[in-house]
Amino acid sequence: MSLKQKTISGVVWSFVEAVLLKGLSFVAMLLLARWLGPIDFGLMGMIAVFIGIGSSLVDSGMSSSIIRTKNADDEDFSTVFYMNMIISVIVYSILFFTAPYISSFYGQEVLINIIRIYCLTFIISAFSAVQLAILTKEMRFKRLTLLNIPSTIIGATVGLTLGYNDYGVWSIVAMLLTTQLVISILLWINSTWRPSLNFSKKKLKYHYNFGYKIMLSGLLDSIFMNSYNVLIGKFFPVQTLGYFERAKQFSDYPSVNITRIIRKVTYPMLAQLQDDTPRLSIIYRKLLRITFFIIAPLMLGGAALAKPLFELILGPIWLDAVPFFQILSIAAMLYPIHAFNINVLQVYGRSDLFLKLEIIKKLFLAIGIAIGIQFGVIGLVWSIVFTSFISLLINTHYSSKLIEYSTKRQLTDMFPILLLAGLTYLLMYYSVYLMMDYSNIIQIAFASLIGLTFYLVIHSFFRASPIYALITIIKNRKL
């Protein structure tokens, strides 16, 4: 199978995974949200920063190094496997013994057991991280999707069963833990690779020299992005953190999953094109424009539908999360662009620059948090949007030095799409207002139909619109 065929096949199967499997998990979380309420999700939000830090430490960026290494062999795989396992045990042990102090910080004793049980996922995921990296490197996304089906179904079933029977926050813990356990077992069973006794200090140094910068970048991102959870959990009622956490999950779901699909498939593809910069630049530009063409109206349209959407899906108890969701949708709209620019740095092995940018961006984020908190929780949420725009300028500036696609060209390509998406938002928001005396379903259906029709019809008038590039890819199955 050619590289183009592998890429298109990967997009298709990754899309199936995102729609069916991630969608199933998302629906399961929606049901749990209706049954449990903001407090239980607020408790999970309190430990998000520690989960993020632990995940970054466990992977250490070495899985990404395996994917980009052209001639990786058993010695590479075994070395990374043993290091991942050692680090995962160390990280889990640290969190196990510090759990009481974390619990005391928030004044929530139940967090002790939540941390000690949920963080077992570090060891479980490390057990199959190399198998996952190998399948990703080989672009075998169909196999990955098929393996994810039983893990997602079993995890959702366990979580919903416990949630229905009033197990509260433990139903969320059980769902996430079970899903990770099943997929790890399946990856191990269905992989032909097994760790040997080969352990190379030279290989470890090679992968760690690339990976530790990715790891430190991930740590910075986890600490700073989850600092909102820490501040809201510490200084505001736990329900407020629950509202923020659900709003963030809602806003992240479409943008993160669409980005994950394209990033997971294109990272190994672009890694193979790292010596052909002109071709890489052309494909990158096409992917960026198509992705933003999809994600911009999706996020802004969702913000327009927020009130009837939350009331219909989660119930009136979650309406206080609507303002958070509407603001966060703006920031989430830019997530794919951040991810694509960061992808360029990893493809060219510039993990040093990756780390440098994270430090610069986090300085701006710290300033945003310091200013935003002066205006309460809404000010904090708006600071996410402002720092996201600043981060976009930083990311595009440095990635443009590696490919022939400047910040100005990227912004120029994005602006017409953003303008039409903004007009679509206003049209949909006004449509919801006009239909406010009707049921939530009618409001959502009517505004969605009006917005989608307007957006696609206006785009169809411009030959340079990404809609035609998307149609060409669908028809010809090639980039």
UniProtKB/TrEMBL annotation:
<keyword id="KW-0472">Membrane</keyword>
<comment type="similarity">
    <text>Belongs to the polysaccharide synthase family.</text>
</comment>
<keyword id="KW-0812">Transmembrane</keyword>
<dbReference type="InterPro" id="IPR023298">
    <property type="entry name" value="ATPase_P-typ_TM_dom_sf"/>
</dbReference>
<protein>
    <submittedName>
        <fullName>O-antigen/teichoic acid export membrane protein</fullName>
    </submittedName>
</protein>
<feature type="transmembrane region" description="Helical">
    <location>
        <begin position="114"/>
        <end position="134"/>
    </location>
</feature>
<keyword id="KW-1133">Transmembrane helix</keyword>
<feature type="transmembrane region" description="Helical">
    <location>
        <begin position="79"/>
        <end position="102"/>
    </location>
</feature>
<feature type="transmembrane region" description="Helical">
    <location>
        <begin position="317"/>
        <end position="337"/>
    </location>
</feature>
<feature type="transmembrane region" description="Helical">
    <location>
        <begin position="12"/>
        <end position="33"/>
    </location>
</feature>
<feature type="transmembrane region" description="Helical">
    <location>
        <begin position="363"/>
        <end position="394"/>
    </location>
</feature>
<dbReference type="InterPro" id="IPR050833">
    <property type="entry name" value="Poly_Biosynth_Transport"/>
</dbReference>
<dbReference type="Pfam" id="PF13440">
    <property type="entry name" value="Polysacc_synt_3"/>
</dbReference>
<feature type="transmembrane region" description="Helical">
    <location>
        <begin position="146"/>
        <end position="164"/>
    </location>
</feature>
<feature type="transmembrane region" description="Helical">
    <location>
        <begin position="441"/>
        <end position="462"/>
    </location>
</feature>
<keyword id="KW-1003">Cell membrane</keyword>
<feature type="transmembrane region" description="Helical">
    <location>
        <begin position="39"/>
        <end position="58"/>
    </location>
</feature>
<feature type="transmembrane region" description="Helical">
    <location>
        <begin position="287"/>
        <end position="305"/>
    </location>
</feature>
<feature type="transmembrane region" description="Helical">
    <location>
        <begin position="170"/>
        <end position="189"/>
    </location>
</feature>
<feature type="transmembrane region" description="Helical">
    <location>
        <begin position="415"/>
        <end position="435"/>
    </location>
</feature>
